[in-house]
Target: histidine kinase
Amino acid sequence: MKWFQRVVLLISWLGSSASLLAQRYYTPPFDFDRSMDRAYVDSLLKTTRIRLLGLDRLRPAPTVDTARMEYLHFMAYVHYSGMTHRDSALLVANHLIHLAERKKNIKYQIKGLLVTERYYREVKTDYPRAIKLNHRLLSLIETAPEVYALYFWRIYRNLGHISSSIGEDGEAVAYLQKSIAWFGKDKKIDPVHLSDLHRILANAYKGQQQLAEAEMHALRAWDILNQQPRVSISNKAYLTNDIGLVYNLQQKFTQAIPYLKQSVAYWEQLKAPLPQADALADLAVSYLGNKQYDEAIANAKEALAKNQKVHAPMLTAYSVLMNAYEHQQDWKSAFAYQRLYNDKKREEQRAINQTESLRSKARFDRERLETAYRQERLLQNQRYQTLAKQAEIDRLNNTFKTNEFRRLAQTNALKHQLETQQLKTAAAQKQATQQATIKQLHIDQLRLGLSAQKRIRNLLYIGIAIISSLGFLLLYYSLRLRRTNLTLRTKNREIEMALIKGQTLERKRVATELHDRVSSLLGATKMTFQTMDADILSPRNKTLYENSLNLLNDAVTQVHQLSRNILPEQLLQQDLLVSLKSLVKKLNLVEKTVFSLNYDPSGKLPLSPEVKFNLYVICLELCTNILRHAQARQAHIKLIWYDKWLAVQVLDDGIGLNPSVEGGTGLHNIRERAETIGARFWLESSELAGTKASVLLPLPE
Model:
């Protein structure tokens, strides 16, 4: 029976797994500092589209519908916040609203309408339509205020934005205070939004010229922002600009300058020239108020360089330049900027005249919709009262009818009791027969379950035996392979040691041949030349004789040095340091580059002859390359002994490494020698710092 129950549970789990997958939807937080990064925005949209396509493969279920609506809301939010696809945000939000209406999901209707309202308010500046959408949102929330009260603060914030935009700062203050009061209902919301509410409220107070209240709320917003572990730079940039502007209006210019400088730095970090121009223009006003005219002119001109579109910061910058040049008695410049200021002021006035009709219509629509909303609330309360009275009348009628029915029920109670007793007796007999049949079926089912369990157990034993056999075979072949690899590594090591030994013998033979034969031959040639009487030669031939004799001297010296450098006696008998010191002395005889040796270890290095030989040859090859190619004045060989490592570095101050040389045979041989002794070799080169070659060798324990 237990086996049968497990099979049933497995089938039910497989049937429900698809719907459970739909609950695992996750949308990452949007990074507003990357809102202008099109690649970042497109990656979020692409990932969300893939997840939406994945939902199409699942069976229809409420969890699947919820996941689909959440992904649609996230897509609309990313489209809008990314600032590059804002029209697409409206299309996706409308699709979300229609889907939520079909599924009768009020939560996602509210979310979709919030995105649509923001689009019409901020992008299209269609304030009448935005006001209608906000009142539609209020009507949806009123259907279940105990559930959706957490959205009230957003609606009042939106209405505060609109009131501030149409010049109704008093109404904006009232709406924003309501928004702050309702803010605590949303337990999951980021406190950064509360900071934003205080910032907007400060701007509304600023519009009413209540600068003390504006300063208080702006600083409150800054305190909230600084208490959060992660805040977008754009939030800080907007807020510091607003604080500096409030201080400018209060003529507290010294207090305004640090905040405005911070704002300029934030916008520079975000690479946003238009808002940075706004902050620069306000900073220029602060410097002008402090009578720092040069700084005011510089910041105003920089603001104009970054903005030739938005009127307000351009007018501020022109005004600062005009006043600053007047104080410096540069009347020509002051007059020029006065003329530019007047032209821009006329352009701004024309734009204000064009939008004033929209503002008036928005004020009218807001008053009309608020009146309709209040009337609807009043009618709704009246309907509630009427329904309550009707319910009381129905309750009284029902009470009377209940008493009548009770009297009739008492008359028929005995008759019904007798009929019930007869039915119970017949049902008991039938139930006894059914229980006997069920017990027999249960016994048969248990027998089938036991036989099935026995078959499964036998199959499991056979499977375990097969798996165990395969495991033993794999273990056997693994051990054989390991022994084979160990044998191969030993053979490779012996071959490497034989190669090193052969190289050492060959170098010793070549050094002997150079010293005994070539050096003797050159010495004999030199002595033959010296027997000639140079005084009887013509001046030209005498010069050729002296040059030839000098060349022979150089050849004898270089052959002698080469025979000793190929395999120095100290390397075979003494420590690596002694051989390198001797190498440095010989290299300095060339008088082309000054070589030096720096070493950290205090004593003999625990190195095998193979390692000493390869390190010496690597240093010799690198120093030869410096003499040939680097054109360096100085070069250094450094030995640094760490705890369990030896670092050998060869540095020069030459012209750097030519890319064609970097892949040459010499460097390839050096890398092979380093790998032979278990070391790592790398190069660092630049035209300014020369070349640095490093070998890092692990020392034996």
